[in-house]
Every structure is written in structure tokens, then in C-alpha cells.
Amino acid sequence: MSDPAANMKIDADRLWNAIHEMAEIGPGVAGGNNRQTVTDEDGEGRKLFQKWCEAAGLTMGVDEMGDMFARREGTDPDAPPVYVGSHLDTQPTGGRYDGVLGVLAGLEIIRTLNDLNVRTKHPIVVTNWTNEEGTRFAPAMLASGVYAGVHDLDWAYGREDAEGKTFGDELQRIGWKGDEKVGERRMHAFFELHIEQGPILEAEEKDVGVVTHGQGLSWTQVTVTGKESHTGSTPMPMRRNAGLGMARILDLVDQIAWSHKPDAVGAAGHIDIYPNSRNVIPGKAVFTVDFRSPELEVIQDMEQRLRDGGQKIADEMGLEVEFEKVGGFDPVKFDEGCVTAVRNAAQRLGYSHREIVSGAGHDACWINRIAPTAMVMCPCVDGLSHNEAEEISKEWAEKGANVLMHAVVETAEVVG
Asked: What is residue 313's predicted lDDT score, i.e. its pLDDT?
């Protein structure tokens, strides 16, 4: 790239201050954030983001899913834009950086280009995707999924929260249901910066993760049925213990995941035991097994071994078992050209880096279906995320944002 773009760096203090000013909206109880999607707090955060974007000379577009698109014009009005961003919504007990870093780093790119009077051929659009977290309205990555054609718009509007409120009604209520049709924008490329949400970069003391793949995901809900009976008076040979059956299946899950090390993982995070009483042997256990791998064949193998092995365990114990796939998506291979732009940026800037697979789902995973896409990751302390104690350093944020900027600007093509 030609000067001044070749040596440009973002203003780390300005980015850091913006992150923590946004965190004042929807504060959590322990230093993080509770700014769940399409709540009043989400609406307030959006207004602040819009204010900052307009101050930077950007024009704002909003689509029917509430996705926000802040555009900086390029010198070629016919060139498709380079998109950059993430999400502003959080978990109920979320941190300050998950998603927010990627959106505000995109804004910081624009501010830096403005400061240096650098123009690009392609427009650059900073994006806030709606409901990435999926904690209030399942599934996760809802709006980017609609954008990519994975989900139907009306289906998304009909998603209900725990109180029976629908996503569409709540989006309308907070005033962020736009008129723009979802998915009609042309994209030259999309880049997303995100905290790793894992421990690898910090443990290996790497500044930047060059994300080559996104793990595929498979959720299978398993229902084990036995017979409720008294824990004190039921002889051991006469028990049909659904809780014990679940335990043995979960041990199998662990064995299956280990057999595909190092990239495959598996566990059950959602577990219900019935009747969940101290002196009653469980008559039913319902739990969801989460398998992930960057290889589709591995996911399919893990699913089949769960069903075969789980059925065998149930048969041996006199239990009934049912398997229902309740969610999932195929692994993602990010665009080689965009990944190369990220890798080259890290090399030019002299940052230590490594290739990495994203263990979590991100909006980039859906957008990759319709446009060349890549991700940048920065470390986070102990790999902790979806927790108010989530933490990164200003230096990590700065280096991740610098790599993001150089990749975006190279792709958008500096003029002059």
C-alpha cells in the first residue's frame, strides 16, 4: 500500500474510551454488561453508535432486521463496499468486549482514515448485526442468518422470548425496525474482529489470531427415560435410573470428543433431571449434547457414535432413549483472499500471530455464505467470555484493530 496508509495505526486511546463509554449503557451487576437484543438498553446503545457514526461523516442505513450500516463513500460510486463490524448486543451477564470491540474497531478505522485524509476506491460500511447472541431470542446470529438467506424474515419476527414477546414486536417497539430489505446490499468483502473467547492466543503469547475456519456445530437433545422410585427403598438391581444413564452417556460424549482431538469438542451444558428431588431416583433426564469440529465428517461421526453408543447404554440398563437434533450448522472455511489480507497485515505490522479456528459462532460465519469473509481475533484473559469478568488489554485491542484496518483498507484499495 502507498503512504500514508502503509504505516497507519489506529488511535488506541480513542478506541478504548469508546468501548468503555458504550459499556455505561446497560451495565451489569459485576462490571460487565446486560444489553440484550432489542431491549431499551440495546436501543440506547444503537443511538450512541449512530451519533458517533454521523459525527464521523457516515450515512446510516437500517434494514428490516434492525441491522445498522454506516457508510463511508469511496471514490468509485459503482464499487461494492467492504463491510466491517460485529454486534452490540450482549449476554445477560456479558462482558464489555464480546462483539462491541468489532463494531467500534470498525468505527475507529473510519475515524483514522478521516484523520489521515485517506480515501479508498470501495466504500467502507461499519455494521452492527442484530441479535448475534441469541440469548433472548434464539437462535444466535439471527439477523445475519436472515441476511444470508438461512432464516426466513417472518420466522425471525415470530421468535419469542421467555415472556412470550416476539422479536418483531420488540424491534418495532424500540424504534429500530428499518425499511431496507434484508440481504439486498452488495458486498465486496466482510471482516470481523472479535475476542478469541478461548485461551490459546494468550497461552501462546500471540498478538493476533488469523481465523481460517469456524467450527461446525451439532446440538442433539437426548431424553433418557427410566422409572422414578424411592432412593432408600429400591434395591440396586431393581432400579431404572435415568440419571445414571445420562451420566454414562455423558462419559461417552467425552470419549467421542477426545477421539477427534485436538480440534473437536463435546459436552452437555443444558441438563434437566426429573423430578429433581433428593430422595427420588430420576425417572427422566433431558440434556443437550454440543459437538463441534471444523470438519463436517467429524461432526457426522460424533453424532452417529452418540446415537449408537447411547442406545447401547440404554438397552443395557433397561432404559429408553430418544435423540433429536435441535440445532447446528456446517463448518466454515473463510475466504482465502480475505484470510491472506489478514495474515499479511499482521506480518507487515510485525505482530506475532498464528492461524486459529473459531470455536464459537459469529455473524461472519453466515456472511461467508454470500460474500468473501475473514475474521481477526485478539486474546482475552483466561479465554473467559459470556461473563462479566471478561477482560482484554488495550494493547490487544489496538493490535487487533490495526490488523483489521490494514486488511480492510487493502481490500478497499487506497486511492492516491
From this structure: 98
